[in-house]
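User: For a benchmark we're assembling, each entry needs the component sequences followed by a predicted structure for the full assembly. Here are entry 17's components. Please fill in the structure.
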Amino acid sequence: MNTSSSLDASPRDRVTGTQFTRGLGILVLAGMVLLIVLGLFVSPADVNQGESVRIMYAHVPGAWLAYLAFIVTAISSAAYLWNRTRSLTWDRIAGASAEVGVLFMGISLITGSLWGRITWGTYWTWDARLTTTAFLFVTYIGYLAVRGLGGTHQQRARRSAVLALLAVLEIPLVHFSVELWNTLHQEASVAGRGTDVEMDGLMLFTLFLGVVVFTLMYAWLVLHRQRSLALDDMLDDSGLDTALTARRAEAEGMSR
Amino acid sequence: MSNSPKGSLPKNSSIVISAARLIAAKDLRVELRSRVLLNQVLPFALIVMVMFAFALDSDAVLERVAPGLVWLATLFSVLVMVSRSFTVETADGALDQLRSAGVPATGIFIGKMLALMVQLMVLVALLVGAAVVLYRASFSWEGGVLLVTTAIAATCGLAAVGTLYGGLATGAKGRETLLPLLLLPVVAPVLIGATRATESAFGTNGIAISEGWPWLGLLAVFAVLFSVAGAVAFGPLLDD
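Assistant: Structure for entry 17:
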């Protein structure tokens, strides 16, 4: 982080952009435009799904991104808890990644159920993958709430890191138990059907492009968010000092 | 054991066990004297069972869903009980004092978990009774054995997760509203496993008792995983 160059500036004047993130941002914008053009206009409609297949270009990358985000959160949380790499930077990366993950999981749940309504005729099925995704969504909403509980930065970091690691334990268990429940109580689910369809070359490319662009966007968002969280923490730390200095200056001004 | 190179380890584990025993006894004594479970939580669980009957209306439906309702009412009550279990600790900074007195966090976790488990067993027994009376559930001797085993495994898992997540936010503002959001998604496997096992114990929809036993595997895995996770993670959670 380029904070050392501007240590004397107040946190309010600092920006989260650097040369690198600006370049990355421009790349993401260009890629997004290309993705929209390819996904909405150039790529063909699907033989079976028709135009609704275009939802996939946002849904699949969104879901991929959400899972990636939660893996990053878990790994950074473990890095925070491990004594040798204990640093609040890891905690902020975990938090930033979870925020972005929740956003994209929301998007992929909404786009997924819209697609399901058009293609399967239902918004929701009790498929293990779907149900687990919903649980992951709720779990990380809870995780973000725990981050906002207050206390010292270290308290926040420790609590949320433990919670993120517990989620790693929880999610496979939920998936496994929903799968057990399904196999005994329902016919084969519909979710598997879409995956083994042979895809047109351009469609596959568009999907691939979507994953790449979304991943770059994720990196861009997390970098910025992580820096703004660092500024938040600095503002918290400096808040009292700043207030004291300001009051002292006022007192001096009055005595003169 | 005393001549082992790491002489402190067996000594430490005996401290953990005696701390756990003392804390469990303390929690149960607090309960016996305050009667919060008896006077507040059990009546709450019962009224939930009655309300289910209003919502679902027909006897046939109630009989079919009775096992699920027993465990749903248990989950609702767990939220109240975990909250209560940690209110006792945060009042007057009791938990901080335990920690500064050098009581091992693992001991605190196991003790509180055991006390919660005992109270949950009482609750589940009452709810099964309510299902028999209100929802016309019935079970054989064989089903009773399955039911008791299920209750032990399920309450063990619920107590472990409840203590762990209850300890997560001790002392922070707004934890009462946060606990349900954190706890309910995690205990979904217990709800699924315990409900299916109870269905076979009750013979709901003609499900055989033998079909219930595999679900105990799920409950046991859950209980073991979260007991271990709690014993390990409780210390880092409490340390400041």
